[in-house]
Amino acid sequence: MTQRRINMLKYVLIVILSFPIAVLAQDNWNQEGDLEDSQVIIEKDRKIDLARVNRDFKKVPNAKSSQSSIDVKFNSKQFIPELNKLSPRIRVLTIQDEKLEKLYGSQVKLGGGNYGASYFEGNFSSKRNKDKSYGLNLLHQSFANGPIDGRNSGSGYQNINPYGKFIFQNAALSADAFYERNNNYLYGYDTTLVNEVDRDSIQRTYHSIGANIKLEDRNDNSNYHYKLGLNTYQLFSNIENSEFSFNYALDNSYDINEDISAYFNLNGFLSNLNFNAIDSSQNRNLIRFQPGIYYNWNDLRIKAGIIIAYENDTLENLGKTHLFPDLNAEYTVFDKLSLFIGIKGDIRANQYRSFLNENPYLDNTIPVFNTLMPVKFYGGVNGAISNVLGYEVGGSIASVQYNYGFTAIFDESEGELRYAPRYFIDKNTEANAYLALSTNLDNLNIDLRGDYFYYNVGDNQLMPFRPQFQLKLNSDYLIADKLKIGLNAHLQGAMNNENIFLEENANYSFNIDEAIPPIYDLGIKLAYQLSNRSQIFLHANNLIANKYEYFLGYPNRGFQVLGGFTYSF
User: Fold this and answer.
1) C-beta of residue 326 within 8 angstroms of C-beta of residue 371
2) What is the pLDDT of residues 196-229, one digit of tens each?
3) Of 112 and 128, more confident
4) The overall pTM is greater than 0.90
5) Which of 436, 301, 422, 309 is nearest to 382 (CA)?
6) Which residues touch 331 (CB under 8 Å, ≥6 apart)?
7) CB within 8 A of 112, min separation 6: which ones?
8) 3-state helix, strand, coil in the chain (%, to 5)
9) 441 Cβ contact partners less than 8 Å away, ≥ 6 residues apart
């Protein structure tokens, strides 16, 4: 028995022995009197001593192990409990998505006006889909009559354009086809001298049919990025001139790190041009190689590369292979102000179709050559002011060879003025300064651009049919909830006139020795919303009613008005 247990036993015995005394003390409970004083003394003076025991601790001897010769194999099967599938009836409370505004993907626009004008525009597209879109665009615009001799100066334009776009995980593919028809008349004859004109002989109708395909990379996680574009068209006409062209462009870039990327671009065209009048066929080719690097460092972006170009145009004193610089730097001063500067050379590709789009009154046979630009210096500033006004101010100066304007050619046997490109073989200087402003407010949109052009094409020579100044304005303003008004303007300075008269004593009344006067063309547009699907519109052009000439002998129509109806579905 340990010391602790002995002490506990002593306490128990004391309590038991004290209990009868406490009980007896209650016998006289109801008797009055004083309690007798008493004192109990408990003494603890006993000590138990135990003799010390000697203990001998010995190590446990190692047991000799004996290896059994019997192989014991254990085989355990894994037990996988299967539970019945639960179908918890739990509904997650979510916020209802905001309903998208109903989208009317298709629209038709019909109109008519003076000069026998007719207008139709149809845009038909698929419903909203994040992975694909497709549709069809139709356009018809024609004037039965013109400013000279009624129907002999009419014109028309038609376009059919189906398209589609498919967006994949790492790429986007878009394609479209087109049919385009341009119809014009060579009405640049003197009506005071010509009584009757064979309308079919002065008609010029050009048809173009073609397609475009573009494949673009969308993989942001890849260091390699690409963009492939292919374009082809076949042009033919009622005078049996034709042009086939296959244009291609491949852009490649590789991100070396976060700041540096290397690129290698390839583009050009293969074409065949035929003029029936001289029974000629010309194969024209152009190919460009454009290697270089992009460098981004904070707010500075630099492009450094070269352009290696090969062409087969048979131009005087020009080789077929050319090397040009391609340098550009852009610096963001702060959030809404950037500066840019660059040096670049290139070959400006000229094709028969592009000449016809610029001047529809060309002669049956014209020379078609590219324009060589050995070097151009350019720079400018762009930015925004208070998220209200965007601006860009810039300029350029270039050395150009085989730059071109147009020359008016009069053959009395033909009876009307026709045009051909006028090339300047020697190197000359070309400069441009411009200012562009744009604003896009809730109720107001304005786009304004002004350009100044300078041409130094040699001693005692002037660039013909090119303006030195040009100003373009497009704007619209929402006056009321359903009424919108727009203003457009085209202003340009006088142009130099250059002409060739094949007969010395030809009869004509053209002002061949005077410059082409400045052009002032103002227009206004009104649109009233009848419903969320329909509206009516009214357009008025050439408010000054000035039959100005851009090309000598071909005055423009005077005051024009076009009204119609638009419906979306």
Assistant:
1) no
2) 888 999 999 999 999 999 999 999 899 999 999 9
3) 112
4) no
5) 436
6) 299, 300, 301, 338, 339, 340
7) 118, 119, 562, 563, 564
8) 5, 55, 40
9) 388
